[in-house]
Amino acid sequence: MSQTDVADVGAQVVTVEVRDRVAWVTLNRPEYRNAQNSAMTYALDDAFTRAVDDDEVAVIVLSGNGDHFCAGHDIGTPGRDVDVEFERRAVMHWTHVGQEGGDLRWARESEVYLGMCRRWREIPKPMIAMVHGACIAGGLMLAWSCDFIIASEDAFFSDPVVRMGIPGVEYFAHPWVTNPRAAKELLFTGDRFSALRAQQLGMVNQVVARDELRATVAAMAGRIAQMPRFGLALTKKAVNQAEDLQGMRAGMDSVFGLHHFAHAHNAETSTDSLGGLDAKAMAAKNKAAANKGQA
Ligand code: ZN
Fold it and tell me: How far is the CA of 43 from the centre of ligand 1 (A)?
């Protein structure tokens, strides 16, 4: 795999460059703050699959092109592709296309959100999320699927979906990657929290100046790349198993039910399963709340 492979990975919504045994996988919809649609999800999966198969790759780094890491799931760009059929890889289920109501949403989100993030968490090579700018809602899911996060000082995080009446994003890792009380605060308010706060909570490993971010991640990846591949794979599995023994997997399964109950309640009582809030309305509300917080 080399930079010349960029063109055949998902119409460039994801780019890949292999350098010094590190696969730099980059979200590439900068004009939409890297909002994640299904095209991007499957391009990411293609990129990760090839990185796993490529003996030259020891470590995978996930980052975002442009000013932000990822603004979340695509709920409002022209490339939003919620009704598009895709090859199912994460779970064994029928297609969401042509289904209705909860049947549609369950099929789709089991595959493209919860299922895919779980699949990526089990990638047997170390994965570092390199986060700058916004890392919001579905963006958190991508960063959390990686083994750890190195962020720049300008990075900020939030899961504001309580505004839609929904108890957190589909990959409900919040209480495990922070702690239960912090998770409640972050979810109840939907507020942005800084890279420094995320580090204090244990969610982010390192915070560095923006212009040092790539070099810091490259240095860390380089150190890890010197370790034996199979040893790293077993070590990753060991820690993931410990996390699951702390209830993460079972917890996510139970919360996925609450999440879908919320979608259904919205569909029943408002205009749609997102409580009538599109990307623009969400952004406006989040911005207003952020300004209020600073006043
Ligand atoms: Zn959902």
Answer: 21
What residues have their beta carbon closer than 5 A to ion ligand 1? 109
156 occurs within a structural domain:
yes
Residue 218 resides in a domain: no
CA of 2 to the centre of ligand 1 (A): 35
Determine how many CB atoms are found less than 10 A away from the CB of residue 2: 11
The H-or-E segment that residue 23 falls in is: strand 22-27
259 CA from centroid of ligand 1 (Å): 6
* Residue 267 lies in domain: 3-213+225-294
Q: Is residue 196 part of a domain?
A: yes
**pLDDT tens-place string over residues 134-152:** 999 999 999 999 999 999 9
Cα of 109 to ligand 1 centre, how many Å? Answer: 6
**The domain spanning residue 8 has which CATH number?**
3.90.226.10
- Residue from 123, 146, 119, 137 nearest 190 by CA: 137
How many structural domains is the chain composed of?
1
Mean pLDDT computed over every residue of the chain: 93
The pTM assigned to this predicted structure is 0.93
Using the mean position of ligand 1's atoms as its centre, give its distance from the Cα of residue 169 in Å: 7
